Amino acid sequence: MNECGKKVLGIVVFSLIFLSCGIEEYIYLAPVPGEFNSQSGDNVTIPSLPNSSSQSSYFTNYSIYYRIYLSNEYFPAEIPKEENTYTSINPSLYSDFRYIEPYTITDDDTTMSPSNVYSTFRNRNYNTIAVEGINIETLLNNTADGKELILDFRENSENPPVLILDGVSYTLRRSLNEGGPFTPKPDYTFRNSEEIRNDDYDNDKSEFAFNKDVQANIQGNTVIETSYCYVSLYIVKEGVETAGFTRIFSFPTFLGVFRLPS
């Protein structure tokens, strides 16, 4: 091979190596490890968020997806991850859990792609949690690496549920993010209320008129009056592929199901 041919071959090999590395980093953000603690079924603690910004230059922030489910079942303690339990809380809770579950698989042989995570959550009417007083994407960006994260749904007559990051509390707020106008009743906080449970339900659209982040308890074709609210939570890493400004995601990590306080 002449000198010119060697140079061309070298450029091709270098390009392939560079592109391969770029594609590998582009399509994968390591999920948040599932080794966290849950106390008394009313809060979840991630002792230390991973060093995501050093693991990937594409990482931008953590997002927490949620959906509220209405129920007549009362669970005072930790809610087990079982078919019968989720079905008894709300049939849609178990159906949604099973639909999302394959995307939480991170084995090498999985056929699922984390690029589908966003559409998967949106197809099940999951939205990203917000907090009061600050953009949650700013709160949970690379400055959150290594910090303790708590989502606390304990009963407290004075304060609504909170997100606690590194010891600082932020009131949790419901959000429809990109889903359009949102007029939740009675407010944006994560509390069990009569207004949330008895909102006008549109059978044709299969959704509430106001509380579109809430899943009614439907038995057959009948909407059942309920007494309790539960929230299902997942945490996801998000990033942006800088060349095309394409959003990328890790596989979601299931945080559990929690009863909302009154």
Folded structure, characterized:
This protein is an alpha+beta fold and 262 residues long. It is built from seven helices and 16 strands. The chain has helices at 3-26, 52-55, 83-89, 91-100, 117-123, 136-139, 194-197; strands at residues 37-39, 43-46, 59-71, 127-128, 130-131, 149-152, 162-165, 168-173, 201-202, 207-208, 214-215, 218-219, 222-223, 228-241, 246-249, 253-259. The strands form four sheets. It has a six-stranded antiparallel sheet, with no helix packed on it. Strands 3, 4, 11, 14, 15 and 16 form a six-stranded mixed sheet that branches. A two-stranded antiparallel ribbon has the order 9-10. Helix 3 crosses helix 4. It starts with a helix and ends with a strand. Residues 6-26 have low confidence and may be disordered.
**Largest beta-sheet characterization:** 6 strands, antiparallel
Provide the structure class. Answer: alpha+beta
Q: How much of the polypeptide forms β-strand, as a percent range?
A: 25-35%
Q: Give the low-pLDDT segments.
A: 6-26
Termini separation comes to: 78 Å
SSE topology:
Elements: H1 3-26, E1 37-39, E2 43-46, H2 52-55, E3 59-71, H3 83-89, H4 91-100, H5 117-123, E4 127-128, E5 130-131, H6 136-139, E6 149-152, E7 162-165, E8 168-173, H7 194-197, E9 201-202, E10 207-208, E11 214-215, E12 218-219, E13 222-223, E14 228-241, E15 246-249, E16 253-259
Parallel strand pairs: 3-11
Antiparallel strand pairs: 1-2, 2-6, 3-4, 3-14, 5-8, 6-7, 7-8, 9-10, 12-13, 14-15, 14-16
Helix pairs in contact: 3-4
